[in-house]
Amino acid sequence: MSRKTGMALAVIVAATAADVGKMAPNFRLTDATGAQVELSKYKGKVVLLNFWATTCGGCRIEIPRFMEFEKKYKGSGLAVIGVALDDDGWKPVKPFVKARKMNYRVVVGGGDVAKLYGVESMPATFLIGRDGRIVRADKAEYEKEIRRLMGNKAE
Questions:
Q1: Is 56 a catalytic residue?
Q2: Cβ neighbours of residue 99 under 8 Å, at least 6 residues apart?
Q3: pLDDT digits (tens, 9 = 90+) for 66-92
Q4: For a tag on the chain, would you pick the N or C end, based on fewer CB atoms within 10 A?
Q5: Collapsing DSSP states into helix, strand and coil, what is residue 97?
Q6: Within a 10 A sphere around the Cβ of 92, how many other Cβ atoms?
């Protein structure tokens, strides 16, 4: 994904009606520590998967909310994963994550993983159920949907 495309729009792209109920495409990317992050290993957890970039204004607005979700629901089985799509890879992402004290897993992806999810603008966020299937949720409904997916395990 080019920087130009990433900066063009700062809107939420939730799962489309066609994506709902489909298995979330698997990917394997590396986090800042060099550890492999493979989406299929998160089966059994509710996953909030967010595609973002350091240059995306809408992404900057969402990050504190996702940090709050990670803190509040991690013990109940939520995993927040941020896929940074910055053209320069970790160079801008590492200092950005450190400065904001982001408390959830961040990996750097590229056009291939964005294409798997049909990401054309950022931020783009998908909720994935414990069974690995994409769940439709509007931006305002994330927390409500997270609670529903977790059943009685969320406080």
A1: no
A2: none
A3: 999 999 999 999 999 999 999 999 999
A4: C
A5: helix
A6: 16
What pTM did the predictor assign?
A: 0.83
Of 15, 21, 47, the closest CA to residue 118 belongs to 15
Q: By C-alpha distance, which of 28, 39, 42, 17 is closest to 149?
A: 42
How many whole angstroms separate alpha carbon 64 and alpha carbon 101?
10
Give the contacts of 19 (CB within 8 A, at least 6 positions apart). Answer: 118, 126, 134, 136
Nearest Cα neighbor of 116 from 26, 20, 10, 14 is: 26
- 43's CB contacts (< 8 A; 6+ apart) are 130, 131, 132
pLDDT tens profile 43-68: 999 999 999 999 999 999 999 999 99
- Measured from the Cβ of residue 141, the count of other Cβ atoms closer than 10 Å reads 13
The residue from 48, 59, 81, 135 that is catalytic is 59
